[in-house]
Design a protein that fits this description.
- Strands 1, 2, 3, 6, 7, 8 and 9 form a 7-stranded parallel sheet that branches. The chain has a two-stranded antiparallel ribbon with strand order 4-5.
- The chain has 8 helices and 9 strands.
- Helices cover about 35% and strands about 15% of the residues.
C-alpha cells in the first residue's frame, strides 16, 4: 500500500516553502504541489531540484493571487487584480470557461518552463472537483499529458454518505474521461492519525495525506505537529511511504 504525504500551496510564501522543504529533508513530506501564480514561485523552484525522489505537481489556482493571463475578460472574478473566491460563481464559471482554461494552461506551462517534472495536478480550494470546471480540467490534462490527479474522495470523513457517493461518481468521470490515475482517496492527517492509533485504518491501494506546511491555521499547525511525531512507527508493515511517482506501481 502506498501512502503519499502531499504539501499544498508551495510557492505561496517563502515561509511555506521553507517548512515544506524542511519536512521533505526529514522524509515526512514526499510530494508537493506548486502554485504558479503565487509570489514565492521562483523561490520554490530554486529548491525543488534538491528532492529528486519527491513528486511535484501543479496546484491549479483560480481563487487566490493575480492571474498570469492579462485578459480583461477575467475581471468579473478579480478583486483588486487578484482572484477572489467568492466571485467564482456557477454562472461565471460557465461564461468564462475558455478564459479560465487559458489561465490554467499558463500556470502549468510556467511550471514546465521552470524545468519542473510535473507528476500530477490538484487544486486550490478543490476547484478540480467542480462539475462546472470538468471540461476545463480535462482540457488542461490533455494539453500537457498529465494523467495523475488528486482523488475526489475524502476518506475517514464525517460528511454525509450522499456527499461521498457524489464524490465517487464524479471521481469515476474524472478517471474515465481522458484516462486518469488517482489515489483511492485523500485524508486529513489528524483523521488518519486517529484511525492509526485506534488500529482502525481502512485498507487502501494508495492514499494521499494532505498537509499545509507554513500555515498559521490552528488545525494545520496541529497536523504538522502530528507529522513530526512518531506516527510512522504505528504504520502496518505493508504500507510504503512514497510519492506520486510510485502511484502506478502501488500494490493493491
Amino acid at each position: 500500500m502506498l501512502l503519499i504525504v502531499n504539501a499544498d500551496d508551495l510557492g505561496a510564501s517563502e515561509a511555506i516553502n521553507d517548512e515544506t522543504f524542511a519536512l521533505m529533508e526529514s522524509g515526512l513530506v514526499t510530494s508537493a504541489t506548486l502554485m504558479a501564480n503565487a509570489p514565492a514561485f521562483e523561490h520554490a523552484v530554486k529548491h525543488i531540484r534538491r528532492f529528486p525522489n519527491c513528486s511535484f505537481g501543479v496546484h491549479l489556482n483560480l481563487t487566490a493571487f493575480p492571474p498570469l493571463s492579462r485578459s480583461t475578460n477575467l475581471e468579473p472574478v478579480l478583486r483588486n487584480g487578484e482572484f477572489f473566491r467568492e466571485l467564482l460563481t456557477k454562472r461565471l464559471l460557465r461564461e468564462l470557461r475558455s478564459e479560465l482554461e487559458q489561465e490554467l494552461i499558463l500556470q502549468v506551462q510556467r511550471v514546465f518552463d521552470a524545468g519542473v517534472l510535473v507528476t500530477h495536478f490538484d487544486s486550490h480550494h478543490f476547484i478540480h472537483v467542480s462539475p462546472h470546471l470538468f471540461s476545463v480540467v480535462k482540457a488542461v490534462q490533455r494539453y500537457f499529458g498529465v494523467r495523475k490527479l488528486r482523488s475526489t474522495v475524502e476518506v475517514l470523513s464525517e460528511r454525509r454518505v450522499l456527499h461521498t457517493l457524489k464524490g465517487r461518481l464524479f471521481g469515476y468521470a474524472l478517471r474515465k474521461v481522458y484516462t486518469t490515475v488517482s489515489p483511492d482517496g485523500w485524508c486529513e492527517v489528524r483523521r488518519f492519525h486517529a484511525a492509526l492509533v485506534r488500529n482502525a485504518l481502512p485498507r487502501f491501494r494508495c492514499l494521499e495525506l494532505m498537509v499545509h506546511p507554513g500555515s498559521r491555521d490552528a488545525r494545520d499547525v496541529e497536523e504538522i505537529a502530528i507529522l513530526r511525531s512518531n506516527w510512522q512507527q504505528l504504520l502496518p508493515a505493508d504500507v510504503q511511504l512514497g510519492s506520486y511517482r510510485l502511484l502506478r506501481t502501488a500494490s493493491p
